[in-house]
Each structure stands twice: as C-alpha cells, then as structure tokens.
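Human:
Focus on the backbone:
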Amino acid sequence: MKVVFLGTGGTIPTERRKHPALALRWEGDIFLFDCGEGTQTQIFKARIGIAPIRAILVSHLHGDHVLGIPGLLMTMTQSNRSHPLMVIGPAGVAKWIRHIYEDLTFYPSFHISVREVEPGPVLVTSQYQIDAFPLEHSSILTLGYRFQETERPGRFRVEEALRLRVPKGPLWGRLQSGQAVKVEGGKQIHPQQVLGPPRPGLKIVYAVDSRPCGETIRAAFEADLLIHDGMFLSEDLDKAEARGHSTAIEAAQVASAAMVRRLVLTHTSPRYRGEEKGFLKQACDVFPQTVVAEDLMEIEICHVED
C-alpha cells in the first residue's frame, strides 16, 4: 500500500504546496481523497496515472478540496476512460457533480456514480472497508475517512501441520485459504488447527480540515498511518480554533491518544513558508513518529511483520 501526497497546502496554493489531495494506492486501484485545484497536474507529476482511480472521496465542499474535480473528470473523458468512477462525499456533492454536467456541457465517456454519505461504512468489499466519520471543522458536514483492510489469516504453523501429517504442497495452500483438508487415512484437518490467530489488516486514516476530536481518535485507534490537519503552529492556536483547524501539537496529541504507528501533518498554512522544521519540532516533542508532508511525497505502508 502506498500513499502519495498530491497537494499539502492550505486555502491559498503556493509554488511548493498545491490544494489538498491525497492518493492511496491499494493493489491495482487508486482512491483519491479530496481533489483540490491542480490535482490532475500533480497526478501526472507523480506518474501514478488517472486510469486506476476507482473513487474520489470528498471531505467537504469547500473550494480548495473540490475545484480540481471538473478538470480531472474532463481529462478522464479525453483519455477515453470507459470503466466507472465513484464520487463519494457529504450532502451536496451530487449537486456539485450535476453542475459540472450542466454548466460545463460535460458528457463523460464513462459512468459516474455519486453517493452522498453520512458517518458510517461508505464502501465495503471482501478485501477492505472505507468508513466515514464526522470532523469538527465548520458549519457544514466535514468527513474524515478510514481505509481498513480485511483481517488476514493467522501465520501458518509449519510444525503443527507436519505433526498432523499434512504433506507439504497444495494442502498447505488450501488450509491457508480457509479450507479444511483430508490427509492419509481420511482424517480431516481444519484451518484453525494449523493457523495462528487472525492478523489485522492495514489501517489508514485521513482527517483534514478539523479541530482535534474524539471521533478521529476512535477512528484512528492503532492505525498504521494517520494523516491529520496541521495547519498552524502552536503560537497561532487562536486562529486554529477560530477557523476549525489544528496546530501541529494538537495533531500530535491526537496521534498519541490514538496510539497510531505514524503521523503525517498536512494542509499547512502558506503563512509558514520555509518553517517546516517548526512544525516537526512541535509535533515530535509530543509524538516522535511524525513527518510533515510535502507535495509529491510518497509513503509505503507495510504490515508490521513485513
């Protein structure tokens, strides 16, 4: 699993930080979280491609989070995309997509399904689940998202399999996939006899444009990666409170309370150009496993035992 930070800036983009957008690559699919102005250009720079994008998940309908959608959809059509795309977000996102159709005379070459969602599961498959949860940002509903892989089978206990006289080969694979097998003499061996306890899948949490809140702590509990709003330094706490954002220290406190493996601060205000070290110092004093996002930065997320 890989995370690519396409845009890490605030409301006003700069030459170094574009509007918010994040790509999560899982297997062959890409899930795009927010799509600020200039996102498609950043996608080309990152060389991740637009064809694999399966869904755009919108946190809220402020312009710096959605103004890149029209251009991205039009580029997809010009590229003759034929497979469907999902757009998921809070109430109002369907109206926004409808305006793109109507006001820009947009005729896509592919089907776009739009889902207005509330907190809870928004996309569930046998391999992963995406849940939305409420953030504390402004008067409009703002959503955070959690991507969680399905629980994985436990480790295969070779010694136990051999003790039970299961021959090495295809039967081991069937047991690992959850199927019971029969060994010589007709005795049936069940997966739980040779597998250890189930192992959790990877968990990634996206909480941008938010004050620190209990909902994020609960959603991110023991997450492998928390991507959190970190717009202000601590000396500007009053601005963070007034505008519905977080300071670097507050984001680190959320990460600490949630016991996550790593924290990435993003959505940095343009007022702090060249002051990334200040964000890092303030956050690391509370939560050492912190990095400050930069445009086009990539993070590979692996299972702990890998």
Remarks:
- The mean pLDDT is 95.
- The two ends are 12 Å apart (CA to CA).
- The chain has two domains: 2-152+199-300, 158-186.
